[in-house]
Amino acid sequence: MGSDIDFYVSSQYTLFGVPKCGSGIPILGVPIEDTVSFRPGTRFAPGIIRYWSQYFEFTPTEDLGIDVLSKACDLGDLTLLQGVVDVNVDRIRSVIKETIDKWGRVISIGGEHTMSLGTAKAVSESQGSYGVYVHVDAHLDSREEWPVGQSLSHATFVRHLVRHVKPQLVIFLGFRSYDREEISFARGLENSILLSTRDIKLMNNHELRLLIRGAIDSYTGPIHLSIDVDVLDPSIMPGVGNPEGFGLSYGELLRIVKAILDYGGSRVKAVDIVEYSPPNDPGLMSLPTIIKLILDVLNYIHT
Ligand SMILES: [Mn+2]
After folding, report:
1. What is the CA(87)–ligand 1 centre distance, in A?
2. Distance CA 78, CA 164 (A)
3. Whether pLDDT at 6 is above 90
4. What is the model's pTM?
5. In this model, does residue 3 exceed pLDDT 90?
6. How many A from CA of 281 to the centre of ligand 1?
7. Which chain residues have CB less than 5 Å from ligand 1, an ion?
8. Domains, the chain
9. Which of 233, 249, 230 is CA-nearest to residue 136?
């Protein structure tokens, strides 16, 4: 006879009820929020997503006939200090490196975007090289300082990433709000591809896939996909700290994600989904889209 306690009592919710890791692709919560330029709240995202995920159907957008949840396990949330960004980024680096070493890849749920600096260093250290950084974001996050006097923040970390891990290629997708200093930096990189929100809306899926395939095939080494959900239009993703008008539709974002994961294949070592901010999400109306994005990443990511 099984115990009713074991059967009915759970000590902790996991994302979609998947097992704790384990085997499978680990999903790690990274509730970092040490630098904010506008509306706070990203630290609450992993917990809210995990709690609400149990009420959703587990169906990805494109039904490929696979059980997407069978690919995943829940690693839990990273414990962080409060307000010490460099220490936290280093802890993220260390934990994600160990995760990639052990499970081969990782999906992380932020937290603010600065966490992707930690992920990039982890990918580089774990794999011994760093190939392609894909920055999907309404912003370029490439300021020298922001706020003025602060070198490392969610508005500057791409400069640190470029300096530290020296990507062979940086791809900026979906940006639409930036200053001259940032766009000059992004265009001035040795190897970079820039497609604004407008560019993406004007391309058809075939053109987009061709371009992404060409870019990915021209370089070797690991791929790191970092998705700031503020790339989406505020009408479907109001729950962000820095909303920007005329964003991507979910279908447009999904074309990008599918192309990167299809052509990147086993080279994709890390996917970061960052900047969801529950306190700025009226009625949590952005959550169904966040949940769908996680399911779609799991659907397309190679095991
Ligand atoms: Mn952003």
Report:
1. 22
2. 23
3. no
4. 0.96
5. no
6. 16
7. 137-139, 228, 230
8. 4-300 (3.40.800.10)
9. 230
